[in-house]
Amino acid sequence: MKKVLVLLMVVLSVLALSKVKVTFWHAMGGGHGKTLQEIVNTFNELHPDIEVEAVYVGNYGALSQKLLAAAQAGELPTIAQAYSNWTAKLIQSGVVQPLNEFVNDPKIGLTKEEWEDIFEPLRKNCMWGDTIYAVPFNKSLYVLYYNADAFAMYGVDVPKTIDELYEAARIMTEDFDGDGKIDQYGFGFRTTVDFFQILLTLRGGSILKQVDRKWVSNIDSQETREVLAFVKKMVDDGIAYYQGGYLDGVFGQQKIMMYISTIAGRPYVEQSTKGKFTWSWAPVPTWVTNKVPFAGTDIIMFNTASEEEKRAAWEFMKYLISPEVTAYWAINTGYIPVRRSALETSIWKEAAKSDPLLEIPLSQIDNAVFDPQIGVWYEIRTVVGNMFSDFINGKVDMETAIKTADQKIKEYLKEEYGE
């Protein structure tokens, strides 16, 4: 009996040693982290020869810093979450593994139909030219959150255009006690680059544009001026409340009747409005276009891993974007599934049947646009965010704000292209 136990221990030890380890750095905390760990655990059970270790590094800022430091030190994980501008910087460092050989592998890859099953904007966001450097992971879309009870009480239709949004905000703005101070604003917004970029994209403008395969500044444009003028008019007319922080709290307090944010904020809205009023969401109102940016990260692989580790990591990445798993991830986190076929899975259909809000954001997915895939995008976003905030807060006039931002953007682009 003793010999059998010893032999069994030896066999188990050999099996444990034969496992290929995949280290996965991520920034998913709280409930999102718990769901991710459940997915990792299931994958590990289904693949006894692979062990994925999900390592929570901290928030996105911490993850970004750790990845850049690890790239310098030669201590990268096998795979990691990354925004496309992080990926661009890491590509420049020569440490990101192209995935074409895995995607196109006849045995372990994806068929053409499976690859194209990934929603096109998400798929293209993972590619630099013809080279695939990532697979999409936690993606969210922007929607219009609104107080459904208030809309019904005022007899206001949910706005489908920017003009209708302005009019709905005007009707629902109230000074209840007549003291000259607004108690209820029809609309709320954050003085961030995200809100500005949403409106700029809807207006048909962009922060950057491509000329001869290079990104150039496009902030000094008529579209930028029209967006700034529109938002300033809402503020000056007293129908829009603004702040730098998140708006779920003031929405729950019924200080604002509607605002634009990502679907990832749903749990916070549900918490802030519970027992107070009925809320809902709708597609973002259109302007000149119906295009809106999407948010979220991808998963990238590093070429510092061994070939065995890369193949194991690819199996996990492929598992993450499988229809059932991406549907499960979306249902349990509030993000969107990254593949169209996920909408045909039984788990998604059952969830959508009991929660009609789930599929509303997806009406925008084919019109979604993604950020420029350049290393200095974070710095450029900061410049534009400061431009928007300073103008709305009256710290600078429109022309000075635009010209200053344009000059700073051009300096960062020179840095990007080594000019």
From TrEMBL:
<dbReference type="InterPro" id="IPR006059">
    <property type="entry name" value="SBP"/>
</dbReference>
<keyword id="KW-0813">Transport</keyword>
<protein>
    <submittedName>
        <fullName>Sugar ABC transporter, periplasmic sugar-binding protein</fullName>
    </submittedName>
</protein>
<comment type="similarity">
    <text>Belongs to the bacterial solute-binding protein 1 family.</text>
</comment>
<dbReference type="Pfam" id="PF01547">
    <property type="entry name" value="SBP_bac_1"/>
</dbReference>
<keyword id="KW-0732">Signal</keyword>
<dbReference type="GO" id="GO:0030313">
    <property type="term" value="C:cell envelope"/>
</dbReference>
<dbReference type="InterPro" id="IPR050490">
    <property type="entry name" value="Bact_solute-bd_prot1"/>
</dbReference>
